[in-house]
Design goal:
By secondary structure, the chain is an alpha+beta fold. The protein has helices at residues 19-29, 45-65, and strands at 3-7, 12-16, 37-40. The chain contains two helices and three strands. The chain starts with a strand and ends with a helix.
Length: 66
């Protein structure tokens, strides 16, 4: 899962590949911005669209079997 490093002081919104990398960057940023945080980035738009597509396929498949 990807993570975002957010800092209001530096206007940061940086995406990292994993939590460990984000926390490493956070250690440096938090020296100047105590409120900086790492949060899960969530799913990308393409992932969400693919999940919706699969859901539609499954619903259609269920209708065929009924």
């Amino acid at each position: 899962m990807k993570y975002l490093l957010l800092s209001a002081v530096f206007s940061l919104n940086v995406e990292y590949a994993d939590l460990t990398t984000c926390q490493t960057a956070l250690e440096q940023v938090s020296k100047h911005d105590e409120k900086a945080i790492c949060i899960p980035a969530g799913k990308e738009k393409s992932e969400l669209m693919f999940e919706k597509f699969l859901s539609i396929i499954q619903k259609l498949d269920n209708q065929k079997t009924q």
